[in-house]
Amino acid sequence: MTQAPATPKAVRRQHDREIVSLAVPAFGALVAEPLFVMVDSAVVGHLGTPQLAGLAIAATLLTTAVSVFVFLAYATTAAVARRVGAGDLQAAIRQGMDGIWLALLLGVAVIAVTLPTAPWLVGLFGASDTASPYAVTYLRISSLGIPAMLVVLAATGVLRGLQNTRTPLYVAVAGFAANALLNVGLVYGAGLGIAGSAWGTVIAQCGMAVAYLVVVVRGARRHGASLRPDAAGIRASAQAGVPLLVRTLSLRAVLMIATAVAARLGDTDVAAHQVLLSLWNLTAFALDAIAIAGQAIIGRYLGADDAEGARQACRRMVQWGVVSGVVLGLLIILARPLFIPLFTTDPAVHDTLLPALLVVALSQPIAGVVFVLDGVLMGAGDGPYLAWAMLVTLAVFAPVALLIPVLGGGLTALWWAMTLMMTVRLLTLWLRARSGRWIVTGATR
């Protein structure tokens, strides 16, 4: 007896279940990551202002270094998910191992650069004579954990590609708890000061990397996948990551230009801008969780040669993006009386912040669709297009933003420019999604 085709309502419910099952744990893991720096800041802050200033500089450098290599998670997710969709779990895990080996190699290279140049890197931030030694100490010790951090990124991509976002959540929560305990114990119990905070983070990151490797190695043995480094596979992983690296660097350039423009507007504007940027990053976690689900689901459909399933999943995730953006925008507007006082009691900053905050709220539905389509195209392995699209966005945004101080604009104008940037991203991503050129089926793109 032939089974009746699923109704549109049943298909939507299936997509909804998949999105929720992947996005909710992914959101938890994403939120846990920045808590590492928050714990370090809370513990080190009680040592003194120079120590906290040194931590701020070193943490900024470390966060930037690691975020540049986020392609290790994105590219691995897409590649592994394709092979899962094709039913070849052995090849999926083998692909993941290539990404992990690449992460180790990049991590060692970063250490080799960071250790001797730490004083120079800290000096670029114009650190004071009192804060600089603490920044150098923290940076040098923490850099030893960068290979583990990058392995965590790559292994997270492996598990996401295997449609598993729960394990990364458990590991992130355990890592956060371990980091908190180690920081308190080493900074105050062992009397190591800021060095103890750095060592605590290194140990926690290494523990997380070991936990991921145990899970991946078990999967490799279960499916007969080789654990040895494969030069061709590592090279292919690196090549797949280059376009996503270009995309990430372009996006970082946008954020740096925005902060530089805000600084030129004056202390009040840059203070308000920092509050808005913190809020913008927080909402990005929620939207990025849906994008992560998109990477895993789209990759699996395309690997299974199900082009129509990929299209339907894309449409449903766009709907999720719109609804999530509207909800986040309304929450920003409704919660502003509670949110703003947490960051500032300065009336001038408050007055500058309020109109720009409304612009951020209005832009959330746009951001919702942008994040989703970004995830869809990453899941499809469409990295080269994402790179070019982000370069075009940067080319549009940069002159508009840089003209704001010249024309006498303020912070609200800057965030309208940020909304323009997101609108250009929406246009470029929507045109690609609509064209269908991203739909390339098969175990590899």
From TrEMBL:
Keyword set, alphabetical order: Cell membrane, Membrane, Transmembrane, Transmembrane helix, Transport
Top-rank lineage group of the source organism: Bacteria
Principal subcellular localisation of the protein: membrane
CDD domains referenced in this protein's UniProt entry, alphabetically: MATE_DinF_like (cd13136)
Xref: InterPro entries: DinF-like (IPR044644), MATE_fam (IPR002528), MdtK-like (IPR048279)
Signal peptide: none
Transmembrane segments: 19-39, 51-80, 100-121, 141-162, 169-191, 197-217, 244-265, 277-299, 320-340, 352-373, 385-407, 413-431
A Pfam family the protein falls into: MatE
Keyword Transmembrane: yes
Location relative to the cell: Cell membrane
Cited NCBIfam families: matE (TIGR00797)
UniProt-recorded name of the protein: MATE family efflux transporter
Organism: Streptomyces solicathayae
